[in-house]
User: Fold these one by one.
Assistant:
Number 1:
Amino acid sequence: MTSSISDIPVVSNAWAERLQHRQQSQVPELWDMLDVVNDPEVPALSLWDLGVLCDLHKDEYGKVTVWITPTYSGCPAISTMQDDIESELARAGFNDYEVKTKLAPAWTTDWLSPEGRRKLREYGIAPPTQSACGNASGLTPEFGVECPHCSSSDTKRLSEFGSTACKALFQCNDCHEAFDYFKQI
Amino acid sequence: MTETDLKQATMQYVTRLGDDSIILSHRISEWCSNGPFLEEDLALQNVALDFLGRARMYFTYAAELEGEGRTEDDFAYLRDERQYTNLLINELPRVDFAHTMARQLFVDVFNTLFLQQQLQSKDETLAAVAAKAVKETRYHLRRSHEWTLRLGDGTAESHQRMQNAVDNLWGYTHEMFDVDALEQQLIEAGIAVDSAALRPQWLEKVTAILTEATLTVPEDSWVVRGGRTGYHTENLGHLLTEMQFLHRAHPGVTW
Ligand SMILES: [Zn+2]
C-alpha cells in the first residue's frame, strides 16, 4: 500500500488538545474502559469520538469522577449517557463514582475524533465539513456535502434540521439516497 | 449591594431568561405534527428543543442560586401565571405559520445580539449558557430569515399573512428592550445584558430583512408591556394549564 501526502489526516487544534489531554492522563485505563460507551442516538460513535466525554479523574480514595458536556442545549440523550457511563463503571467493579455535566467550554464538532468522522460516514451520516473547506460561515452549506453512500459531491440540502438537533437532511443527485449531515457547530 | 442581594437579584434575572425560553419552547412545540410538511415539522421541534434546553440550564441555575432545595421542575411546573416573568411576545398563540415565523425572526435577531453580550457576563454560568446558545441561534436566525423572505416575497396570500403577522406582533417587540431597576443593578455589576442598548442594531437588522422580503416595517403606534412584572395576556394561563397538567396531577412523577 502506497501512501501520499494527502493520506496525512488534517486534524483540528481542538481535537489535538483533547487527544493530548487524554494521553497525559494519570488513569489511561479508565479512558480505555469508557471507549465502549456509545452515543445513544448514533451508536456507531463512542462518547469519546463524539467529544462529549471531557475529563475523568480518580481521587486518592478511589472515587471516580467523570465530566461530560451536552452537544446541544436541549440534547435529550444526556441523561442516558450519564446512566450508560454509570453502568459501565459499576460493571467494572467501581462503587464510588459520579458523572458530572459541565457547560463550558461549549461543545463543538471540532472535538469529533478522526475515527469518529470515519465511523459516521460508514454509518451513513456525512461528517461536518470543516471551515477550512471554504465554508466560512460555519453554517450548513446548501450544496456539495459529500454523499456518505457513493461519495458524490453533487448533493443538495433538503432541510436545515434533520432527525435530531445535530443533523441536517441532504439528498444525493447521483445515487438519489437521502442522508443525514452532522452539522458543524 | 450585598452579596446576598446580588445573588437574589441574579436568581430573579436568570428566572426571567428561563421563563422566556420555556414559554417560547412550548409555543413552538405546539406545531408538532401540525407543521406544513415533515421537514419543517422536525425543524420546529429541534428549535423548540434548543429553547427547552436553555430553560433547563437557566432554571437549574436559578434553583442553585436560591439554595432552598427547589429544582428545575419546581420552577417550570409549580409556578402560576403571576409568578411567570416571560416577555409577552413569547406567550402569544402560534396563530398561523406566518405569525410563528415573524415572532421567530424578531426573537432570533434579538437573541443573536443579546447572547453575544451575555458571553461577556461576569457570571460564569450565564457566559457558559450563552456560549452554547449563541451557536444554535445562528441556525435559528438563518431559518427564520429564509422563511420571512419566502413568505413575504411569495404569493399574494403569503405576503398578506406575513404582513399581518408583522403588524400584529410589532407592539410586543418593545418590551424586549426594557430595562428595569433589577436589571440596571445587574448591568452595573457586569452580570446582565443591557438590552436597551441593543434596540438600534435590532431595528436595523429587522428593517433590512423585512424590506428585502417586500414587507413594510410598522409604525410604532402601540406598545404592550407587563410580562416582567407578572402581568400577562390571557394566553399564558391556557398555556400553563396544558404544560403543567401532568406534573400537577401526578406530583414528582418520573419515567
Ligand atoms: Zn450518493
Note: The radius of gyration of chain A is 18 Å.
Number 2:
Amino acid sequence: MIFEDEPLDPWHPLPILPGHSSPGRLERVLRAGRFTVTAELAPPDSADPEEVYARARVFDGYVDGMNATDGSGANCHMSSVGMCALLTRVGYSPVMQISCRDKNRIAIQGDVLGAAAMGVSNVLCLSGDGVQSGDHPDAKPVFDLDSMSLLETVRGMRDECQFLSGRTITAPPRVLLGAAENPFAPPYDFRALRVAKKVAAGAQFIQTQYCYDIPRFKTFMAQLRDLGVLEHCYILAGVGPLASARAAEWIRTHVPGIDIPDAVIKRLAGAAKQKQEGKQLCIELIQELREIEGVSGVHVMAYRQEETVAEIIDRSGVLQGREPWFPGRGHELQKESA
Amino acid sequence: MYSVRLWTTRHARLFEIIYNVFEPIITRLHPLWKNLGYERVEKPVARLEALCKGVLFDCQMCGQCKLSTTGMSCTMNCPKNLRNGPCGGVRGDGNCEIYPQRRCVWVEAWNGSRQMRNGDAILTVQKPVNFSYQGSSSWLRVVRGVVKSREAAKLNPQPVQAKQAAENTQ
Ligand code: SF4
C-alpha cells in the first residue's frame, strides 16, 4: 500500500494527517478501515543488524506493522529500542513493545523519546512477563509502572508534552498507543471492562492473546461493543499456527494465559500432516475473526514459524489484493509514477 | 497470612462497611494528631496500621492504600505489583501465573469488588505508585488529605474538593 504523500526516502516520516496521532503507516491503514495485519518479530540473540533485517524480510508485503518484542517471556534478546532503530532506518513500521518488568519510569520515558526520534510511530504498553518465566529468574523485577499507568504516561508525554514529573517536553513523541488484552484468562467479566480502562488510559489499538476459542472471543467483542469501546479503539485479534498437537498440548499446559480448546488439539492430532493442518486452522480462524463486528485486523504470532506468515495471510485472502508497503517496493513504484 | 487475606477479600463488603465507619473517626481525630504533631505520631500509627492491615490483608505498606478500589485485595501482593487489573497470564483456574499454588490477587480483587457497594471503583485508572511513601501511614495521609480538601473547599468552590476527594487514599 502506497500513500500519495509518501516521503521520497522511506525512512522519513509520513505527514501527520488531521486527527492522527502519529506519522506512521500502521495508523494510516487502521484509520482507512482496511483489514490490518501485524506480526510478532522475534529479536535475535545477536548484535548483527542483518539478523534483524532477515527476520523482518520474511514478512515483506504481508504485514502493516511488526512488533519488536521487549524481552518477551522474560528472556534476554536484542532490545526493542535497538530493533526499532534498525527497522525504521529502512522505513519499516515497527510497533515498539515496552514492558514494565525491566525499566523504571525514568528509563521508559527516555526510551519513548529516543524511539520517537528514530521514527518509531507505534508503542505497545505491556506489564510484561514475570522474571521467573525467563532465562534470568534471579533478576530483580522492576514493575515501577503497570501497563495502564504506562499508557497514561506516554499519552501525557504526547498530548500534554510533559514527563510524569510535570517537566516540559519540547517536541512530543508522536506515537500511536497500543495495549494487549487476554480475553481468555479469568476473571472473564473483567476483561472487556479492562480494555475500556485501557482505552480511558490512552490505548488506541489492542492486540489480543491467541484466539482459538471463537465463541468466547465473540462474547468479549459484544461486550466491547456494548461498552462503546469499539468507536475509540481498533482491535487486532491474536492468531498463530500450531505446529502439532503435541506442541499445542505443551503450550496449553506450560504457557499461562493461552487457552487452546480440546477440539483444536483433537483436530490437529487427527491430521496426517499436522503442520499443514495447523496452518489451515490458522487460516480458517483468521477468516472467521474477520467476520466478527469490530475486528480491525489480526496480529500474527508465529513463534519459530515466522516463514509461514506470508503463506497464511496470502491464503486467508484478508488483504484482498492489497500489498502492504515494504522497503524497496514503495520506493520503486513511487519513482516510476514520478 | 495468605488464608486470612483470602477470607477478608471474600468478605469485602463487611470490610467496606467497617472502613466507612473507621475513616470518619480517624478524620475527626485530626485535632489530636495535629496537637501531638503528625511527624511524631507517624511512626506509632504506621506500626499499628502495618500490624492490623498486615494480619488482615498482607498489607505491604505502600503508604497509598487502594484497598477500597481493589475489592479489599492488596494488589501489592501481585508479584508484578499491578495496580490496575490482572495480567494476561492468569491461569484457567484463577491462580497466579507466577505462583501457581496461589490465587491471582486480581481474580480475588474482582470478586471482592462485585460484593462492594462502591465496587466499580475498580474501573478507575490508578496513578503509578509513589515509592517515596513506602512504609508510611496511609491512614494519616487520608486524614491530611480530607482536612486539606475541606479547607480548600471553604476557600474555593467545588472543583478542588472533587479533585482532592478523587485522590484520597485509604
Ligand atoms: S496472575 Fe494475578 S497475581 Fe499473578 S502476576 Fe498476574 S495479575 Fe498478578
Note: The helical segments of chain B are 2-10, 12-28, 30-36, 38-57, 105-115, 138-155, 158-167.
Number 3:
Amino acid sequence: MKSLGILSAGLVFAAALGTVASGDDHVDPAVMKAVKARQAQMQLYAFNLGQLGAMAKGEVDYDAGAASAAAGNLAKLTSLNGRAVWLPGSDDATLGEDVTAALPAIWEEGSEIGDKAKALSMAAAEMESAAGDGLDALRGAIGDVGKSCGGCHEDYRRSDD
Amino acid sequence: MRRLALFVIGLAVIGLGVFWTLSAPERLPADALAGIEGDAEKGARVFYAAGCASCHAAPEAEGDEKLILAGGMRFPSPFGTFIAPNISPDETHGIGDWTAQELADAMIHGTSPEGAHYYPAFPYGSYGRLATHPEGLKEIAHLHAFLQTLPPSSAPNAAHEVGFPFNIRRGLGLWKLVFANEGWVSSVPGDDAQLERGRTLVEALGHCGECHTPRNAVGAPLNGQWLAGAANPSGEGRIPGIDEMNWSARDIAYYLETGFTPDFDSAGGHMAAVIENTSQLPEEDRAAIAAYLKAVSQP
C-alpha cells in the first residue's frame, strides 16, 4: 500500500511537471528545468492541501485515510532537498516575469528562505500527525500550514494580477 | 513699477491667505464623543478589522510582538519614504496621553492633536468614512480603549524621508480638500445588515481600496476604478483586482481566514499580513466582506 502511495505521488508529480506553462525561449534549458521543477513542487503542495482543505471547508466528507495520505505526501514533499531547484540567478529580474515569480531577495544577503522552508516542514509534520485524528484536529492544523505557505510567499514571491 | 510690485505682493498675500484658509486642518466638533464609553474588548475586533498592527508593529515583529506598536516600518512611495510612528500607549514616545477624540480626529480628518495634517500613507481617507456611520465614532472609542491595554514601547519616532514640496504638511490641506472624505463608494440597500457591515469592513476599516484601487499621479485613489487592481507601491508585480471575483462567497471567506485560494495556492505579498488580521475576525465579518465583494462583482 505504501509503495502505491509513493507511486501515485510520482505520477502526480510527472503530471504537474507536464502542465507548467512556458514563455521561456531565452532561458538556459537547465535553469528552466529547475524553475519548472520547483513550480511543480509548489503545485503538489497545493494539490495535496486541496484534499485536506476540501474536508476542512466541508466540501467533501472527512475521511481519515485520505486525510492521512494527503498529509503524509505534503510532509514528504516539504522534506525534499531544494538545492538544485533554487539555483542562484533564477529570479524574476534575471529570467523575466513570465518565467518565474521568485524574487531576487531569496538569494540576497540576510535571506530567511531557509527558515521559511523549515517553518513549513514543521507545520506539515504537525498536520501529518493530526490529519487522521478527526476533522477538528485537521482544521486546527491547516491554519498553521497556511501561515507558513503565506509567510514565504509574503517576502519571496511576486504578486500579480 | 512700484505700484505693480505692490499689486503683485498684494496678490501673493491674498493667495497665501486663501491657501492658509483652504489648507486649514479639520476637526470633529468638541462634543462629538460626549457620552461614548470605550470598551476594550469590542476594540480588539476594530483593531483587527483595521489592521493597525500591519503598519505600526516593529518591522520584524512576529506573533505577539505585533501587539507592540513601536513603529519603524517603512513605506516607500513616489513622494518619498514614510516611516510609521510609535502608537503604543507610552506617554512620551507613543500616544498614551491621547484622548479618544484626538484619535478620532487623526483617523477621520488626518489631523494631529497639534493641528498638523497627516500624510495619507496613514489611511484616514478610508477610516474617515466612519464619520458618517452611526456606530463609527463608537468603534473608534472602543479601539482607543483597546490600544491603551497594549504594551508600551519607548522607541522614538523617525522622521519621514520626504523631499520638497511634499515635506510641507500644510500643503496636504489642499490635497485633502480635493481628495479626502469622499464618502462611501458603493451604495447598499438600507435593510441589508450583512452588506452594510461588509461595506464598513471593506471601504472603511479594512482599507482594502488603499491597495486594490489604482491611484492618480498625486496618489489619490481613482474611485471610478474601485478595487480594480493597482500597481504595487513597493515596485514589484501588481496587486490584483477584486472587483470581479468569480470565487464563491465561501471561498472568499476561507481565503480571508487561511490565505488559501480555491486552488489551494496561498496568498503572498502584503495580503499575507492582511490575512493575519482577517483570520482573527469573527466568521460573520469574513462572510460580510465576501458578501460585499460578491455584490460589487455583479455586472
Note: The mean pLDDT of chain B is 92.
